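Worked example 2:
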Amino acid sequence: MTLSRWTPTGLSGGGATETPTFSPHDPNHILLNCDMSCAFQTKDAGHTWTMFHWSNMLGNPFCAGVFHPQNPKIVYAAYGYPSTLRISRDGGNTFVPHGEGLPGNLRQILIDSAQPDLMLAATETEVFRSFDAGTHWARVAKTVGTVTGLHIDLTSSMKQRRIFLATREAFYRSTNNGNTWTQSGAGLPLLPVRAFTAGSRADSKICRLYAWLDTASADGTSQGVLYRSSNGGTSWEQASKLPVPKGEAEQHRYLLTTDVRPDTLYAVQPARSNEPFVHRSDDAGSTWHPVMFGNKRQPSFNLGMNHTATYFNALAGWTITAAGICPTNPDIVLVSDYCTPYLTQDGGKTWKNLDIHHAPDQGKPANGHRWLNNGLTNTTTWNYYVDPFEHNRHYICYTDLGFARSEDAGKSWMWVRDMGPNTFELAFDPEVPGRIWAAFSEVHDIPNNNIVTGGHRCMGYGIVGMSNDFGATWSDPTLGVPINDERWYGSHRRPNGTLCGGLPQTPITSVFLDPTSPRDRRCLYASAWEHGVYRSDDSGKTWTSISNGLGAPGVNMRVCRVRLHADGTLFCLVTGKLRDHWLMPEGVGLYASTDHGVSWHNITSPLDVRWLTDFEVDPRDSRAIYLAVCDDPSRGLKEGGLYKTLDRGQGWERLVRYSALHFSASIHPRNPDWIYLTLNYNEGKASPLWLSKDAGKTWKPFEDYPFCSAHRVHVDPVHQDRIYVTGYGGSAWVGPLEP
């Protein structure tokens, strides 16, 4: 599937990367997964990245792939969150399903480097074996505890391989290719095995097994220790102490070694620290020296600088999400925190960031500089805007990253983070260049599954911000003060729900400007999560609640988006909320007001739907409305799809249902019968982007759109053959107007 019609845009990096895989044939060839469903490969050691098409390979944060040790064209990897086995026979460019008898939920894939027909695979609690290169599989073990590692001992007989299996609670050994297993851990304490690795060389008959265990102290600090075995797991000895900082004992940590040099070992702490958090040993774990220094205030700092590192004064505390080692060169290691993957090719002396490039001719990287996308697009975006006055200025609303702006039509981007971690929407003044209002929130992913059906924190800070300089700086109009990190997290922060100028300090999910209002007293509407809709008649200085009849006060006021039609009709969407593990019906619906918000009525009452995500109103007729709905997983019903009404809700028709997770419909501004439809993550079962040219009667997919999820479509006002697509995890893409 060619990606030539689609180009990633915006800031690259910024999301969690997981489960890296190095090719033993070319250490510059790396596979990398993301927890937001995208998967990537690089063939130039991370200088540039290419996202796999969603139908080919989806991101899997649990299971690293493996390259065939002898044939560089064969690669095995786990597909998406179902974590099912796939194989590539063209060097990792395309993948197809593979493996009869092997379930999903894979956590480990292992291949015998001397006889590649022998493979092992593990789920969380089961081990499977194949003797025909993964074509057929059979279960050979069920474990006690979650599997943390597997190793085939290359010093053992090729006819009767010795195989080691570590779980959180036990250590097992097989001496007959995995037919039978015995617990083997003399000298190994009965403590949680947090990490396991092993390396073996047939020529030197060296086999080293390593286990990182915990010995918790009374103050909560883990007095972690490294145990090793040099006799095939028959006995274990304590090699050294590997303590973990207080509060991090339960987080994932990593041990890395190789078969080419089993005595060289890396230990990776669960979180980045101002103290060294990656250590290396060259004597099988007896002694260690630090190799990764993350405190940029110290001369020892040896990490590449990107947009996040130039902004934050301190980088400590970020979770380490990935660590991997090149199987043929232990001096090549990849370690990633929650925002940035780093690569060393010199054994830890220096580390380069793999997520983004500093635009040239700017000197030393600094906050506010321009950055270039390198293809590692693994963040969530909500809306993409081209400035109505200066078309070279572009803007992107992000989850977690906050906001980005470009002054060269999207070629390079500047990160703006002072307004907080999440920006949902912008509203531009129709007469004053550079004047913008924005919906800012401390809470992310509204109204996606993390918030509606997941366990993520749903309440936090929020504000309607204002900029007079094209989004370079932002202020709070209710207080007349700049917005910065101190305002968000410091002593000036007000408790959630506190009124500032009449607007509650709560996530603001939408802001809309009435273009007919006076230039010096703009009328603004804002949706305040769990509080309702608010109106300002003085450009955002003071606000008044206009929520009579909206939602279910005190029960569900999860307002997501507010829109004003040209005929004066006001619309607001209220999405679902869990109560006792069920999505409640109270308050949910699309509401309309014909009296400027004095009163509201639910126009979706004929529908029994609980999880609404977005809506779009025909600019020619406010009675014609498109509504995106997701399935309610608590009821097991299949009510998701795209709905349409032609009479403002008296009757609804479901136009299509392509998956359980529909997200939005976007109307082409110059062709109102052209409707773009988007879907969220659906395990690669349907194209996430569709176009109808007949107001929803027939649809055609964008089969080459690369990412598995899409949020909204924005048509370029200048280049009429170009659209921008935002997505739930794949950042933003520039592509063609039609399939």
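Residues 307-311 form the longest helix (5 residues). The first strand starts at residue 7 and ends at 9.
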